[in-house]
Design brief:
alpha+beta; seven-stranded antiparallel β-sheet; two-stranded antiparallel sheet; 9 helices; globular; disordered N terminus; disordered C terminus
Length: 280
């Protein structure tokens, strides 16, 4: 403090030429960066084992975890804390070695438990003829089916406390416009999660009595398809988990089925082949 006052007094009485030559104070040294924490060796080992599996198997494990235990992530085949914790939870529940790595026998056990859960729910991935999408529906929960005003199908519980809708957006709509409307402020409604990517968005929201999940996907031709689930908070314990299962099963733009060997070609295909033969 004393040195600072002396420097200030000197600056006051020195001429301007001297002021121009006064040395500036050195900037304070930046604090030393803290070293990054060492990665958990158990998580690293589990990640290496998981990522050594084919992508389809990794996704299947995550989907099975959603039915067999508490996994609330997207089944994308990528490994992270959600997958690691879900595998460990499954191992603890089944009194297995808790290391986050599924042995072949443990994998079979997981698949069997998840299969039993699917059968109990009559969970099946259905072709939605109204939208062209594929979507998993727990048919013992959503027992009523009809069409809706969004170009899609509607499934409801017997008591009407939960509704699942598939959606086709009208021509001319954009993903951004739909996202903006889904996230717009509304009385007595709170957006609890929102994610926008170039080809899809996810928005979840709550009111005093209900919860909702909405997802829209942009197709290669500009078409927009999606689905929405709304349910009473009184059934949230069951529906929170089922919503993740439905989301992980949803395929807005499924690839065309491969032709069956020996199947008769469609008339259009025959005409195209004949035209090519004539041209050649």
């Amino acid at each position: 403090m004393k040195n600072a006052l002396i420097l200030f007094s000197a600056l006051v009485v020195l001429p301007s030429a001297t002021l121009a030559q006064a040395p500036s104070a050195a900037p304070p040294a930046a604090p030393a960066a803290r070293p990054a924490p060492a990665p958990d060796p158990r998580l690293v080992a589990a990640q290496q084992a998981f990522e050594a599996l084919p992508e389809a198997e990794r996704k299947a494990i995550q989907q099975d975890l959603g039915f067999a235990t508490a996994f609330n992530g997207a089944a994308l085949g990528t490994f992270g804390p959600l997958t690691f914790n879900a595998i460990q939870k499954f191992e603890r529940e089944q009194k297995l070695n808790v290391d986050g790595i599924l042995s072949p026998e443990e994998r079979k056990q997981l698949a069997a438990i998840a299969g039993n859960a699917r059968r109990a729910l009559r969970f099946a991935v259905l072709d939605d003829a109204r939208t062209g999408a594929k979507i998993g529906v727990p048919q013992n929960v959503f027992v009523k089916r009809e069409t809706n005003n969004n170009g899609g199908s509607r499934w409801q519980t017997a008591d009407g406390k939960a509704t699942l809708d598939t959606i086709v957006a009208p021509a001319g709509e954009t993903l951004q416009a739909l996202y903006d409307r889904a996230t717009a402020a509304a009385p007595n409604r709170k957006v609890t999660y929102k994610l926008l990517r170039p080809d899809f968005f996810v928005v979840t929201a709550e009111t005093a009595t209900g919860k909702s999940y909405r997802r829209m996907t942009l197709g290669p031709d500009g078409a927009l398809r999606g689905f929405a689930i709304g349910y009473d908070k009184g059934v949230a314990t069951e529906l929170d988990k089922l919503t993740i299962a439905v989301a992980n099963s949803y395929d807005a733009f499924p690839a065309p089925a491969a032709p069956t060997a020996g199947a008769r070609p469609a008339a259009g295909a025959l005409a195209t082949a004949a035209a090519r033969a004539a041209a050649g």
